[in-house]
Amino acid sequence: MEEDARKSFSLAELAGRFGGTVIGDAAVRIRQVAPLESAGPEELSFLTNRKYQKLLATTRAAAVLLSEDSADAARLPRIICKNPYATYARVAALINPDVRPAAGIHARATVDAQARVAVSASVGPGAVIEKGAEIGDSVVIGANCFVGEGARIGAHTRLHPNVTIYHDCVLGERVILHSGVVIGADGFGMAMDDGRWLKIPQIGRVLIGDDVEVGASTTIDRGALDDTVIEEGVKLDNQIQIGHNCHIGAHTAIAGCTGIAGSTKIGKYCMLGGNAMISGHLTIADRVVISGGTLVAKSITEPGTYTAVFPMQPHREWLKNAALVRHLHELMERVRRLEDEVKKLGRG
Amino acid sequence: MEEDARKSFSLAELAGRFGGTVIGDAAVRIRQVAPLESAGPEELSFLTNRKYQKLLATTRAAAVLLSEDSADAARLPRIICKNPYATYARVAALINPDVRPAAGIHARATVDAQARVAVSASVGPGAVIEKGAEIGDSVVIGANCFVGEGARIGAHTRLHPNVTIYHDCVLGERVILHSGVVIGADGFGMAMDDGRWLKIPQIGRVLIGDDVEVGASTTIDRGALDDTVIEEGVKLDNQIQIGHNCHIGAHTAIAGCTGIAGSTKIGKYCMLGGNAMISGHLTIADRVVISGGTLVAKSITEPGTYTAVFPMQPHREWLKNAALVRHLHELMERVRRLEDEVKKLGRG
Amino acid sequence: MEEDARKSFSLAELAGRFGGTVIGDAAVRIRQVAPLESAGPEELSFLTNRKYQKLLATTRAAAVLLSEDSADAARLPRIICKNPYATYARVAALINPDVRPAAGIHARATVDAQARVAVSASVGPGAVIEKGAEIGDSVVIGANCFVGEGARIGAHTRLHPNVTIYHDCVLGERVILHSGVVIGADGFGMAMDDGRWLKIPQIGRVLIGDDVEVGASTTIDRGALDDTVIEEGVKLDNQIQIGHNCHIGAHTAIAGCTGIAGSTKIGKYCMLGGNAMISGHLTIADRVVISGGTLVAKSITEPGTYTAVFPMQPHREWLKNAALVRHLHELMERVRRLEDEVKKLGRG
């Protein structure tokens, strides 16, 4: 990054663009965003968690974003706004704009004569685009990506290098796919027949809505008969596996390493913690929160937070308790017998 | 997909090819398979689960596949067969044949002069095939795949784009590897020596039998000294990790996100649920079923289903119970003391 | 592998190079290393676990590496050394040297005119190296890898095929990245604003120290503001996910399928079992061992082994015990009541 080339903005300009009230010197200029601990003289910081409030006293930041109820928590120049974290996101995006490669098809990309690529799109070296694929305006297809026959990619979508899109899948606009992502591989479908697995053709597609982001090495399988659907605004972290015929509701966010088995429907605005596992053929309501590491084996009909995690202990203590978990049934029997005996004694 | 180009088949033809008895109009023509809910007038559906039986009354399907004991559950034209799900798989494959690229080496593939590629094989753009590799009849090597030195790939096997095969690995016939698969990376082997890890060379191979399918981004490490072996007919879902020197028995099916640590031997016809984890150096008997999310830390000698999952609860209830799990040992002590006291009281 | 081309070494030579005392015929020549069970007449084996000691009686190995306290456990020629496993690693590396491709940029690699590639480096077909990237001495960039703008790769580092390095990331010397690895994708950062997620630009980098090895399809995200740091000597297995701004201490080893959420700091010399999950914003002390499958939701300040795994049982038994876990709180209440009643009875 070339520091000098980066534009600077005054607090007044930032508040003008993104909303908020400046307290202190509105002419202070900002070149970058930074955490309170490490921010320097031309940097803007932010406070979103009260627990870091004491850092406001010592930070070297030029200015800070604060919410209305923390407006007086700092003396340095500040912008008071409704949602400092969101404003920080906007300022960071303004100062660090997405750098996109120039439009055009690299001489070493392989684009089928029957594919349609917008003039404003960029196709990197080694990328392969098959027959009938459609690449929209200002799309970026990174180096060594593969876009299969008949796939359609909406405007402003970006595929980082080494992404694979199987045939006939459809991506919306402003989608971001990170490296290693695989969209539309065959779902895990087979029938046992006379001691051998028969493959069930996977003839559905994957449909991805607008403004979806998919983290590195996440895989989303195509549907068996119907389509797998990821609605708009869904955010998927790295190394997530989404089985065939799943349906993920709009604006749901899923943390890394989570698996969702086939035909499960997740609601809108859900949040799934890392390394969760959702069994197949379930329905999860809107606004459900699943804790990291939780296995969900039943449908969930009510919003709320759900958890299924064995609590961590030093191994020696765990050994004792885990052994007892395996014999809880017997412990329960002993308590029942005690209750009977105590009842008898009480009567006696 | 061009609907019109797809051939149609009469029920009589389908029953003739795949077995079964037609009830109703055997001349009804089928162009596609579909679920009961969404099937239309030229589509064949199927019933494999009694719980969907009521859909038979309302489906718009042209015909349906039923088992013998459900033969009278529908009035529409139907094929009665032993295993409707398997017959559905066969019909679906007939109607939706695997489309394979034409034979030949793409001008932008890089094939070493000392590699042997069958004339009937297809090698896509950007694929790299190193010295001494052997690519069998009708094999498809997708775009941007890598096949390392001395690797051998059996007839009719298909590598989707962006698959990596390290040197000397051996794949059987009719194997399917989905995008992102990595076969033969180094196993996780090292020795601690004076505060530093020494890498242990991984000089074994990966041997994959006939008719194996491997899902997107699954990784199978090469053996440290001996080989890692995946027997014929094994089906692996996406994002599975198989450590060095593992041996997976024939026709075992493993769901996504599962990890199998080094040197573990899994039997034949096992089924492992998603996000399971099998520790290293274990032996799992034939026909074992492991529930999703289960960590297996001991060998299993008997067929059956095994589970290790903390049950899910609303977070607030979980908090209370999880806290108690950490103190089960003390609860057990309290029950013991009660038993002693009640005994004394009984005597007294 | 061409057996004949491999050099052979006498026990005397091996002990001379790597330390240790030869007992028996020091002229015995070794061409390969092998496990005790399968070793043949020109092969060296080793014993690191007493439980395999009986194999010493029947092995056909030419010689064996033993520790001082097992010096007399075998009659065959042997090298007695402090750390037989480490010596085995060294002998294996001597006999099976890393084969590296010849220096030079393949005609089908795409290297930007403003990238710097050492003359001794090797860049494979299909690899893409962007503007300002620096590739050090003797580095190997495998086929179809991507090295983004401004990334720096230290001497002797090897990228196997299909690795992706995003812009500005920095790799040390002698680093090994296996296929499918993605370094520097955007971290999972977003702010909720009026019902939509706003992306937070991820402007940090990934810094990887010397002698780090990263397994197939592991992903390490770039920092949000500061950098994600992997210190020297860290060993990562396959399919691990490391979130933005994590810091992994030197010589820590992490087994496959493990996830580490953002901003967590892991100490030095830690060992994390497979499929573990570490929540975000935690601090884990040096020399902590986390059992496989364990979810860590709190910081750990003391060295030791920590576990959080529901014990496995046959499914039918699990059903009974899992149901009781969900009602532990009620069981505890019943025990409390019993204690009260017994107390009263005792008084009465």
Characterize the structure shown.
The structure is a homotrimer of 348-residue chains. The first copy, chain A, has 348 residues and is an alpha/beta fold. Chain A is 15% helix and 28% strand. Chain A has 4 helices and 40 strands. In chain A, strands 8-11-14-17-20-25-28-31-34-37-39 form an 11-stranded parallel beta sheet, with no helix packed on it. Chains in contact: A-B, A-C, B-C. Chains A and B meet through strand 22, strand 23, strand 38, strand 39 and helix 3 of A and helix 2, strand 40, helix 3 and helix 4 of B.
Keywords, separated by commas or semicolons:
homotrimer, 348 residues, alpha/beta, Udp-n-acetylmuramoylalanyl-d-glutamate--2,6- Diaminopimelate Ligase, Chain: A, domain 1, UDP N-Acetylglucosamine Acyltransferase, domain 1, 3 domains, eleven-stranded parallel beta sheet, ten-stranded parallel beta sheet, flat
Topology:
Three copies of one chain form a homotrimer.
Chain A: E1 9-10, H1 11-18, E2 21-23, E3 29-30, E4 32-33, E5 43-46, E6 63-66, E7 78-80, H2 84-95, E8 104-105, E9 110-111, E10 116-117, E11 122-123, E12 128-129, E13 134-135, E14 140-141, E15 146-147, E16 152-153, E17 158-159, E18 164-165, E19 170-171, E20 176-177, E21 182-185, E22 190-193, E23 196-199, E24 206-208, E25 213-214, E26 219-221, E27 228-230, E28 235-236, E29 241-242, E30 247-248, E31 253-254, E32 259-260, E33 265-266, E34 271-272, E35 277-278, E36 283-284, E37 288-290, E38 295-296, E39 304-307, E40 313-314, H3 315-325, H4 328-347
Parallel strand pairs in A: 4-5, 5-6, 6-7, 8-11, 9-12, 10-13, 11-14, 12-15, 13-16, 14-17, 15-18, 16-19, 17-20, 18-21, 19-24, 20-25, 21-26, 24-27, 25-28, 26-29, 27-30, 28-31, 29-32, 30-33, 31-34, 32-35, 33-36, 34-37, 35-38, 37-39
Antiparallel strand pairs in A: 1-3, 2-7, 22-23
